Amino acid sequence: LPPAEVHRLRLQNVLEKAAGLTRYARDYDPEKMDHRELPAVDLLDFLCHPDRYTVEGKKVKREKLVYPVGNAPRTAVVGREVEESRRVKCFRRMSDPALRQFAPHALAARLDVLRAAEFRGTKTPLRNALIVFSGILEGALTREDGDRLWEQYQVPVFEQFLGIDGELLAWECEVHQGLHVCEEAAYFERGEEDRLLVSFLSNPRLPVLRLDTGLAGRITDEPCACGAAGSRVVDMRRRTARVGAEVQVRRAAVG
Ligand SMILES: [Zn+2]
Questions:
Q1: What is the percent of the chain with per-residue pLDDT over 70, rounded to a whole number?
Q2: What are the pLDDT digits (tens) for 12-62?
Q3: Is 106 in contact with 75 (CB distance < 8 Å)?
Q4: φ, ψ (nearest 5 deg) of residue 49
Q5: How far is the CA of 223 from the centre of ligand 1 (A)?
Q6: What is the whole-number distance in angstroms between the Cα of residue 174 and the centre of ligand 1?
Q7: How far is the CA of 154 from the centre of ligand 1 (A)?
Q8: Pick from 167, 239, 214: nearest CA to 41
Q9: pLDDT digit string (tens) for 166-189?
Q10: How far is the CA of 227 from the centre of ligand 1 (A)?
Q11: Ligand 1 center to residue 43 CA distance, Å?
Q12: Is the dihedral angle over the CA atoms 96, 98, 99, 103 positive or is it negative?
């Protein structure tokens, strides 16, 4: 099937689930409607009324950590639950003594966890890479964040953009030119004024289409020098500081 048709079917599938199982899309007719006719979901409305968008009793499975280059070395993951292995272990906090004992070569942590750790002066020496989990709630990694983290850890920094339940939606490769979209998990669209909309394709708890992320960005289908196919989100940034502040206030309500 051509990629556009694959996207259409995936979005149709989400629309059917949303229409049948949530309050948010009960008025929509999946038989007749194209997802592009659906109004974008306002981020603050979504954060204020998460129950309208949620399928009760559904949970999101733990994913494997996607390591951006080759196989993961000994990697500590903080603030996100992923499948553990001999080399990949999850920790609750950066200050966990078990994390120091584990002596990771790479660290994968949420942006807010890293900012807080910097504030407290907690860090762990690394050899390979730092993966930063950004997201709809945390915002995108800014250039200032990237520079500071590089100074602190002295290893390459890779961004991974997560959905509301910690599912991977897009990831940065070693070329560092935008984030590769995880095509089975997310469909990104560029709205007016570079608004970035996202549809969750594989989250059984949140079948949400065209959620306004509060971020701006562009989407490109140009091939990446790393050789990975598919589209990339480039130049992702928080639209305004006000949206960022409001999201921080509301975020406690979801998840
Ligand atoms: Zn690439």
A1: 98
A2: 999 999 999 999 999 898 888 888 889 999 999 999 999 999 999 998 999
A3: yes
A4: -130, 60
A5: 8
A6: 7
A7: 22
A8: 214
A9: 999 999 999 999 999 999 999 999
A10: 6
A11: 29
A12: positive
